[in-house]
Each structure stands twice: as structure tokens, then as C-alpha cells.
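Inverse folding, one chain.
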């Protein structure tokens, strides 16, 4: 099972308001990591656009060391992979699966950008952009992991 993980709007609320509200970057990461520890068979691939401008080492920094070892890559650059009608993020995810000989692997995307998914929207666990990884998203992700175990 592979989790394609977005950052903005997932691990923290999107936008600048959240700083005013007192929530910081990666404020929901502990909640996600606690869930992931219950499902050790889940591997993580980073799908956040942060991958485009940060080195892998920097991308991994916010994660706890036990979770960091389960991060197996980042999806290819924006625009890579299948052509439309696939949406950008789903096609980059599918490209990663192809490149890693993992097209038969079960996967789920945790993301707030529903418009980036069309053909694969059944794989999406959606977070509200200005809410992030809340109890509802956590319960849904848990159900996906349980379904794959
Ligand atoms: Mg996002």
C-alpha cells in the first residue's frame, strides 16, 4: 500500500490565515504519523509541490525518523506522464507507479486538490484546504488502510 502525500491543505491548513490562527506548518503531521504507525505496511511517496523546489533532505526533515524510513520517493515533476484527460497530480502519481513497476500496488492519495483527480478520484482521501487532516479525513484514511490489510 502506497500513500501519496500532499503537504499544503493536508499537514497544515492552506493559506496564510492559519499562521494568524496559531497553527503552524506540519501541525497535523503527528496525527498522521500516529495513524501510520498502526499500519506498518504503508509506504509513503511525497506528492506535494514542495518537491519541486526543495531537496529531498529538506522535504524529509519534518518527519519522525521511524516514518522517514518509510518514505520511498517523490512523484515526478509537474507535467510528467500521461496526457490529458488525466489531471496533473493523478498522472504524476500513475507515472511514479509505472516507473517503479508498482502499477498493481494498492494506493491512496491524501490531498486537498480534488481538481487534480478525475480518473483516479476513487483513490483520493480528501482534506478541506482550510481544515487539513482532521478526524474525518483520518477515519477515512484508516478505512482505506484497513481495506488493504
Ligand atoms: Mg495541497
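Residues assigned per position:
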Amino acid at each position: 500500500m502506497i500513500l501519496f502525500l500532499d503537504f499544503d491543505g493536508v499537514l497544515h491548513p492552506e493559506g496564510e490565515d492559519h499562521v494568524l490562527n496559531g497553527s503552524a506548518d506540519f501541525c497535523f503531521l503527528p496525527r498522521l504519523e500516529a495513524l501510520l504507525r498502526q499500519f506498518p505496511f504503508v509506504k509513503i511517496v511525497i506528492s506535494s509541490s514542495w518537491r519541486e523546489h526543495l531537496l529531498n533532505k529538506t522535504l524529509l526533515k519534518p518527519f519522525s525518523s521511524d516514518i522517514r524510513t518509510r518514505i520511498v520517493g517523490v512523484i515526478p515533476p509537474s507535467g510528467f506522464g500521461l496526457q490529458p484527460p488525466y489531471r496533473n497530480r493523478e498522472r504524476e502519481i500513475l507515472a511514479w507507479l509505472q516507473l517503479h513497476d508498482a502499477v498493481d500496488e494498492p494506493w491512496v492519495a491524501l490531498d486537498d486538490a480534488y481538481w487534480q483527480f478525475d480518473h483516479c478520484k476513487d483513490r483520493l482521501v480528501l482534506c478541506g484546504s482550510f481544515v487539513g487532516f482532521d478526524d474525518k479525513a483520518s477515519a477515512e484514511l484508516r478505512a482505506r488502510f484497513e481495506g488493504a490489510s
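DSSP finds six helices and five strands in the chain. The first helix runs from residue 17 to 20.
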